[in-house]
Backbone:
């Protein structure tokens, strides 16, 4: 529970008091179009589909530093102090529980408020007890768990991750392949709590935990909240591809001065983040499908720890593109963003949508929540979908499907052509007939 | 036939010789996914739907300066001279016809190669003769006409535009409300030639010419090719809205040094361009639907004539956005673009798709070609669609419909849930059942 | 007394309380090197030369809106409210006097706290009375007057400005060529008060007032405080010239949302500002001396009123330069600056240095204060000096001269060569002897 | 002889043919003011002081790849091919000599045209023979040697560098502390040839070679040509300091795709470059003198190898500054520069000025040439001067001194005050008298 969590909690408390507004949150603010454009049916998502209310939410969590959330928020410096004063009581009331933490996996962070339990399976059981105690004490019906902690060092998938059996054996035997993030994910799934991973580390993204999620019918989502530079990248790259503009190179650098930046100054943690940020372009641009456009571009991503900025991250992107006959052009994007400000509404939406998913009987990987992630999880045999537009349509069409509404496909020829009654989105026969004489001459 | 046309023609000639590639053109390079993701059916658009071939194309047109296209291309400075050498013969062979031109409507341009016909109806007839002569001389089956000329001064719609009758009377009486662009559009539609307008002036965007298009069964499209800054705007603005990030302001400035820039240095021509560029944001952001996010933003657009750049336009955008609890962020975008390089493939695609539309029996406003325009035309009672992604999905789903393929909606829940056979895109019954117990408690 | 003045006053009060630091002020913070580099004599300017102390300063002034300075500071939004709280009393205690104001000269500002005196000479006398009353009431020995008000519309010099006699006749006869800024300047000089003009309007920059300044032995300085974009321009342009890099064009745009921006949205006020900003480059680059480098560049300056930014002005410059064999390069500078934050220390320095100048017996135009101005005043037959470095050297060498210290010229060959005793900065004889055999072969 | 040398040579040949102009070169294009401003004495530097003529220059050099200079220039891609055609003969005629090269010191470069001599002293003697043979074959009176080769890995100074004796012993014994750059410098100084080092490696910057330079009366200069980003830094940083604006941080990143970038992708070579680039700010800003302004800033410099750009390097700087009362501002500078285009005129000027220096009898470190270097050499007990303005004044005042002209100090009070005849730049007595009554009250 650091900068993101304290910004999220302070925000929810401010919104409940009517002092702040949850900008950035689809679940709270976005409308959803139903039916044809002229019908004017555009309810708020939260009026369309039954989500939990902010007033029903209660918060708890772990932290390796042990400060109350007011101290954490002050230290993070994301929200101005005079804003925090309004909810000081609410934040001071949230006291973290001792964390499962191991500096081997987050080398630039010194955890001091940590469970002194050497065995990983025992650590998992202690987390499960925390979860159940919290649920009982607070009289809660349902829970959701979100990983908002620091990026762990990069780990490759290994045999211990490949089945639930191997994984539980690994826990018993303190396998070094199992970092804390996986222990938390295991504890969540064992208690049938939906789980999402906001960092690039593997978390629940291993076959062992997919198996557990299916077994216990729990929805999972991840990985790595899509906040500043990557959000822009997943906007701009699909645009280049839509317009068939080629790419010579994309250079991205980031400066940030918060704890996240300090952790990522460790090359091993950076490696995990870099893989998450790099993968985006290839999946969007499909170099194999478009070798002459995207077969040879140079993609570099840098993150530099730069203390003057605190949480106010800044990204600079230089994009070398080419068009008609190969002539070169350049786009430069300078994003003065606020990491936690972009992440907080994602936390809220994921909590509410994962809770919805479980109630709707959905389980396992929730690809329709790809919208929120830099490295979206999907069925292992499919490619992840990185295009922000497609992710958004997928999210909203999923909500439409869940509520029995017709999905949108934006074809819309029927606004102009008389379609036979009941044709719906099926191919209109008369167009096909018109189409038959198609020849170039 | 200026910078855009000469770049387009030189490009087509180079592509036909195998020296250049038509980057930026969907019709030539883009694939289209058919069926489910795992089917791997991704033909090129041009292999999927029968478009005219580049080798079938023949070019002619009007120009108020009268130079051959090689001279025009040299003067425009878009393509390097050593590239133009390869197709010098082809370009020198294209000699423009005398233009219908009136300096009252394009005040910073001095037309010297102009039809000396005082009456506007007679001018239209002269254009019709040009068209018919060209068709006959070249032995052509079909034509398409594209307006790639300078931006005329801003004109409001007036009674003379409201019906075909009033319009033809206006032509007879030399109404000042009828600029050359409308005379060309009229001539195109009278000869049943599909017509698209690449500039922001009204062109065919008046009820009189919609009437004529419907009467003669001719497809029309427009207005204002979506090239640099506005292309980025229609990528980024939908992204902000998808993420429910609010907007305090958007400041856009452009510097360009070509003839287009010189024409737009006239405030009356700039007014037409400004309206076209300004309208984009409101339609995307829907301030009425989202007053607390988009109710009060400040949107400024500047274009400055800056000769050092020639055709290499540069845009700088500053975007003041806000997120969670109203905290501010900024995005700055610097686009070193090439106007004609971005416009040339649009010209090619529109020519081929409008020709396709006519063969498919489509007529009137082609909203599915909105993808290519800053101020897309649509049914008068609908709002234009500015979101580049929706425009792209609409274009491709229209092609799918024309060929009898299933449209895409990216819902994709069926990859994860077992759907009943034949459910198609209809709401899956079992999800609805699951959904019935939805309550927040 | 608007944004600049309230920021200046609040700052002085905070500095006196030890809460803030006067960053940006040479008079308070800068050292001055005396003698050779190795001597280590680098006193603070304020310890080197006897300047007035902050604790001796007392403030008064006019304002057309009539609010106390605390209200003005809150409204300006430059300093955070919690900073202002510390000096609320001091600021509330400064109540402006009724202004001489005429909306004809500042068309976008509605003055409501204005002297109801129709005759301009009578207005001047009323200002003189204000000055004398303030001096007497506060028991002051010396005064300085600084114009920190809005930019008036552009006026050309005309006969009424050419002599003191003509000017006083113009005052009597209410000449429209005499705007309020000149009436204030006249009142200052009549009371022997040193005067500086922080805006681009003419103010004291007319022969009539030079004459009065000489007659009354009063130092004057101006015009237009050099704050953000122009400060950068006077850094970068001399750099290009030093390196003999040529210039194709320089495009500058500014967005600002404060009252200054609103006033400059009036084209007539903008014209005055534009002239001030444009003149800078030509004087630095000397196109006549370097026609092949600077003979044909395009220089554009835009200012746009953009309310989202308040006082936090932003500038964007694009510079098209060329080097060896004419090959082109580009520099883009994006300055997120704070107008009043940059202006406040200038106000302080000018007040102290003008007071110093009068005590040192200097009078008339003070070219050595050019450092602080966009359009520095100088002897009419000389060109103004815009190069920030030369301005800075001139300022410090003037201080050295005033105190009898040797001036610096940074030649420094004597660190490496043995010079004859007492050679000082005179040409070292032995170098000349060495130089005699200079031939190319 | 790589990108810089071939650009330099092609340029000189083009200038001699009247096809190109030596923009960027002070020796060819800059004027020098003599006397007072109103005297109008502004000769070209080359008309003021007797420099060698371009027509007298002859070129030779070493290269580890062995291509002729036309091939090298084509490969470098700096100058357009149609420009190179005009001087193809001249460039093909310059064939490099086999280099002293050791991959241990430049790890990302594969030298193939290399002297097969194992002993370092013998390598030096081979270089000396090359020099003498060239001088004799071409009938030359004087030579200058410039290091324009790749950056070697970072080496610290060690005992072998501390005296000429130790150094020559090191050569004999193949000391690993002696990289090729020092062997070339030794060969230059032994043949009494003035030498300058354009790369950041130590080169002649060791006491052993200072000793040799003094002994043989040879002028030396270095290190690291000041081209793009650092040139801007030495413009902007002095400006901040002049204005007493504080600094929280300065982040600089560079992307470049030429051989230089490839070499610098080796962390050991980058370390040498980084030290050269980092040192600039501290020396300019003097944190010890101004601890509250510059005591704690964060300075980061990145260089990334990014092939899409070739020689067209791009820098992006973000500067976090603060002003009045500590309020923050930001400057971002984006420099699309051309490394070799900026370096070529430096090579020319250094060649001519070093030759001048030797004829004028100057020897050892030439601090007055600091203007051209990122890490300027100076007397070991002094701080190097990084401020571009001071460097420029120093250069020109040195030329004035050499020719017996009065140096400039820009004090200029005498334009305004009547000075006693012959006062020159000495402190004017009457000002001091005026100054005596200075008191604050």
Residues:
């Amino acid at each position: 529970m650091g900068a993101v969590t304290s910004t999220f909690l302070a925000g929810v408390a401010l919104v409940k008091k009517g002092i702040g507004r949850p900008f950035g949150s689809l679940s709270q603010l976005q409308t959803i179009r139903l039916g044809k454009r002229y019908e004017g049916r555009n309810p708020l998502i939260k009026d369309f589909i039954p989500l939990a209310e902010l007033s029903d939410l209660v918060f708890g969590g772990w932290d390796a530093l042990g400060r109350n959330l007011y101290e954490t928020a002050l230290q993070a410096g994301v929200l101005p102090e005079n804003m925090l004063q309004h909810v000081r009581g609410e934040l001071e009331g949230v006291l973290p529980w001792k964390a499962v933490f191991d500096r081997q996996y987050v080398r630039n962070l010194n955890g001091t408020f940590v469970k002194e339990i050497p065995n990983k399976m025992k650590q998992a059981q202690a987390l499960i007890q925390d979860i159940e105690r919290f649920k009982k004490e607070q009289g809660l019906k349902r829970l959701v768990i979100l990983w908002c902690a620091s990026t762990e060092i990069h780990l490759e998938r290994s045999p211990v991750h490949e089945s639930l059996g191997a994984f539980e054996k690994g826990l018993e035997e303190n396998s070094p392949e199992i970092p804390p993030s996986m222990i938390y994910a295991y504890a969540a799934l064992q208690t049938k709590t939906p789980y999402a991973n906001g960092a690039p580390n593997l978390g629940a993204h291993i076959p062992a935990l997919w198996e557990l999620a299916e077994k216990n019918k729990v929805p999972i989502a991840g990985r790595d909240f899509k906040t500043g530079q990557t959000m822009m990248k997943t906007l701009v790259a699909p645009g280049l591809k839509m317009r068939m503009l080629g790419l010579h190179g994309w250079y991205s650098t980031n400066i940030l001065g918060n704890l996240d930046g300090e952790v990522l100054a460790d090359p091993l943690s950076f490696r995990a983040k870099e893989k998450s940020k790099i993968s985006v372009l290839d999946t969007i641009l499909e170099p194999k499908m478009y070798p002459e456009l995207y077969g040879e571009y140079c993609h570099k991503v840098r993150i530099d720890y730069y203390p003057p900025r605190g949480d106010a991250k800044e990204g600079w992107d230089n994009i070398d593109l080419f068009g008609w006959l190969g002539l070169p052009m350049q786009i430069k994007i300078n994003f003065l963003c606020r990491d936690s400000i972009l992440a907080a509404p994602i936390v809220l939406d994921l909590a509410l949508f994962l809770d919805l998913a479980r109630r709707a009987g959905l389980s396992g990987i929730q690809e329709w929540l790809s919208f929120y992630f830099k490295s979206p999880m999907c069925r292992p045999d499919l490619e992840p979908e990185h295009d922000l537009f497609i992710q958004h349509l997928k999210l909203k069409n999923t909500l439409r499907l869940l509520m029995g509404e017709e999905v949108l496909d934006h074809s819309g020829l029927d606004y102009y052509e008389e379609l036979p009654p009941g044709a719906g989105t099926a191919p209109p026969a008369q167009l096909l007939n018109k189409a038959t004489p198609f020849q170039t001459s």
The longest strand of chain B covers residues 246-256. The domain at 229-336 of chain B is CATH 3.30.360.10 (Dihydrodipicolinate Reductase; domain 2). The beta strands of chain B are 145-147, 195-197, 219-222, 246-256, 298-305, 314-322, 328-336, 364-365.
